[in-house]
Amino acid sequence: MTPSLKIFKEESGFLKLFALFKQKYRSLGRVSGAVKLDGFSDEELLSVAGFMGVSPESLIDKGKVALADFERELALTPFREYSFVELLQEVLGETILTKREEDELTLKEEKKFLSSLAAEAPAAVWWWERLAEKPADSRWIWGLHKQDPIWLQEVLLIVSSALKSLPEKGEFIRLPVFAQKITGNPHSFDTNGVTGKLLLHALYVLSVSRGEWDGRTPQSSGEMNDLLGFHGLLKDDLWSFVTCRGFLAEDEKGIHPAWEGSVARGSVMNVPVRELLGLERIWPASGNEVWIVENSSVASALLDEVKDASIICTHGQLRTAGWLLLDYLVEEGCKLNYSGDLDPEGLMIADRIGLRYRDSVSFWRMDSDSYRKSLSQEDITSRIGKLDSLKCPELASIASALKDEGKAGYQEGLIEDLIRDMRG
């Protein structure tokens, strides 16, 4: 009959020793190595020494116990029916796996988890594949999986269902209304909650896969709002605005007086999403050509010099209002001319615009000759890798020039050329 393990479970020295044994065994994956006895009391050392068949003084001098030595002594005791690992498990009351075994089990569980998601929501396979790759942006999601995989699967399926109900291109819905429609709770997709963060992650992955996002995860509230807005979900319809001049607009009552007045006075408008959503049409006050620039100082110079041109300033990365305005103009069959800074970030913005509007947009002064004319001394070699994500073939030549030179080119060096182009 196997003797009682009470002696091990009630002796603090053995409990300490076994806890150290567990760590060492898990780390090495075998009964090997030794553990130090730092922090053991004299009474605890006496218990361990008695089991090991050595004097306390000898054990203190040695200062450690080898796992193999303990296993050897175990075979000489009434507890020899237990293997080393079985004894640890019985005394500590837990299943002990090596880190390798634990990793293999975790991997198996994760594969099963992803397979279940793919079976339940095959339309979101692009998201499940991203999670399987475990990029840095998904680590927090796998952290949730460790805590409660069943709950996480339920939430992920809610989000995947929401993805199938996103507004059509050019249509918008307020985020709380969308959440109410999908879950019955208007706060389900609040961006400070887990479900809202998962929705943002899914939209981010979707946008990156389509080449519509620059690869950087949204961090600020503004970036989150922009990502939501890009997919037709409005969290804040006042913060996002676009600057323009020379456009007319129409709502259900006819020509909008504010836009008409702006054209009559030659005034510049900062138009928020809230005002854009109430419109039915927007078009240039004169002609069919639209001039779009990234930089506000450049836009201001163009506004001064070409009074009758229809001009838009995006202030860098397009926000929801900018996309909405361009959507209206493309619906009217307008020709969009876009000019941005000739650096990796500027080309990524141009790439997103090109992918969204295809044949409706031309890249304006974003060629190799213009790049060399606008060349600065700013080194961009640390950011060159961003150019590898570009998908518009029209940007291949300028991207190659940037890689060769390793310097940024800026719109300010092209103002005279831009003005000349606009004047025809």
From TrEMBL:
Residue ranges constituting the DUF2399 domain according to the UniProt record: 270-422
Residue ranges constituting the Conserved hypothetical protein CHP02679 N terminus domain according to the UniProt record: 32-247
InterPro entries: CHP02679 (IPR013495), CHP02679_N (IPR024466), DUF2399 (IPR024465)
Name the UniProt record assigns to this protein: TIGR02679 family protein
Species of origin: Rossellomorea vietnamensis
